[in-house]
Design a protein that fits this description.
The chain is built from 4 helices and 9 strands, in the order αβαβββαβββββα. It is α+β, with helices and mostly antiparallel strands and about 160 residues long. The strands form 2 sheets. A 6-stranded mixed sheet has the order 1-4-3-2-6-5.
């Protein structure tokens, strides 16, 4: 019994020393958050697509200048929306339904749970099993799901 009391006291002593001089708890609760102020550190260049989180304004305003403003399609990716333009694509934080609402002035249609397309960007429509695939002016192929197939046909998007 005395051995266990000694082990317990040593464990408490090591934990207190570790927490005091190393700066974090050895076990148990996480260390409190302290914000970093690295104003001298250079900003790293983003790898891959540009993520524009927390930026206000409309979808068009949030697009990088290099992509222009001619939106061809929207694609949902988890909590982000990939905006396809005639010059490339960018990944913006937000919901697809909100992005579609911001593009209400553009004549477009939702053709899938994860896709919205601009009608005048449709170059070709092909049959794909029970469904359809829409080929857009920027080379993207977008599936038309069964749920949106009739709506697409009513909008004039159907295979020949």
């Amino acid at each position: 019994m005395q051995v266990w009391i000694g082990v317990w006291l040593v464990w408490i002593a090591v934990s207190l020393v570790y927490e005091r001089w190393v700066g974090g708890p050895l076990y148990g609760r996480p260390a409190p958050y302290t914000p970093r102020h690295d104003s001298d550190a250079p900003a790293a260049a983003p790898a891959g697509p540009v993520l524009l989180e927390g930026v206000g304004g409309t979808l068009i305003d949030r697009l990088p200048e290099r992509l222009g403003r001619h939106v061809i399609a929207l694609e949902a990716e988890d909590h982000y929306v990939r905006v396809h333009t005639d010059r490339g694509s960018a990944l913006l934080h937000g919901r697809l339904s909100d992005a579609i609402g911001q593009l209400a002035a553009i004549d477009g249609i939702r053709v899938h749970r994860s896709y919205w397309i601009r009608k005048d960007a449709v170059r070709r429509v092909s049959a794909s099993g029970k469904g359809m695939r829409v080929h857009l002016s920027n080379g993207i192929e977008v599936p038309v799901s069964q749920a949106y197939k009739e709506l697409a046909r009513q909008a004039g998007i159907s295979p020949p």
